[in-house]
Design brief:
The protein has 377 residues and is an alpha+beta fold. Helix content is 22%, strand content 37%.
Amino acid sequence: MVLGVGSIAGFRNESEERIINIIMAKAKLTMDELLAASEESAKRAVVGETVTGKVLSIRKHEILIDLGARGVGMVPRREVSFARNLNVGDEVTASVIETEMGDGSILLSLRKAAKEKGWDEIQARLDGAEVIEVTPFDANRGGLLAEYEGIRGFLPVSQLSAEHYPRVGSADKDEILQRLNSLVGKPMKVRILDANRKDNKLIFSEKEAVKDGLAERFAELHVGDVVKGVVTGVVDFGAFVNVDGVEGLIHISEISWERVNNPADYVKVGETVEAKIIAIDKERLSLSTKQLTEDPWLSEVEGLKRGDEVEGTITRITPFGAFVQISPAVEALVHVSELGNGNDVDPEKVFTLNERKKFKILDVDKDGRKISLTIVK
């Protein structure tokens, strides 16, 4: 027996009031609860509203939800797989899609409600600048795809930490994608960089998530320190090294005392190297492997003096002269003025790359690390 407010008001004498009290006692209802139920039944569902109810039944093509005084809600078959972990009796939250179907039920969406709740969670994490964990499920050349609270988001390559950033040649897009694919399925700590519910945009940043720890790590590092790190990328101008989460660069000029044409001949991705910190900026360390050893130039020029004849290989030809390798660590210059009368001589017509010739030393400048040569007539 269900009693509405009108029914209660219709009882006039003491006997009728006693009957009401007995009925309410058996039903364990209070007057406030009866009034609340009648008020709730007067409310109609509104499209877009979030409602709660209990699962009545789970069928192959639909899920029925008990909404109490509001009636029964129906979740269509396209969302049955989304709710595969539900059981009869579970309390659920859903969004109203249509207020009245042909059979009188209310059309609901569990997915939409979960999405709205997910956006609320995302906004809270963004406002609090919290570090969260996501697991990428796919990758493209631009970055990684990941989901958080049921919302799909994107982690751009530019927002990866030094540990995961694919340091390869800009033209090698296949290798970039290969590196990114290796991160799929691996949990990553990130911060939410941007979230826009209206545009359905969610951007993650691993770089922001590790920023606090990096500041502490940078404070522990000093110019002159010798550190160990893992090579994360080899490019034309040097090698990138991950030093406990801090990115470092060994410039091509700091790899070896020898002339380095290709850094890949000296270091490989995944290799652990030892290097000296020669500079520190806000985001990166400048490293040197060659400065961990003595400069062989100093010892190799020790026996050279003005007037000595030497043999060397032409390594570079420029408008102002040619560079000559006279020992593994020593390179000297034949200035254009030594090739003929005036500076109008074209060095490319005098020399050929990789040819060997005999020269005479004009000057040895140890402080400036320069040796000047002239052609032996």
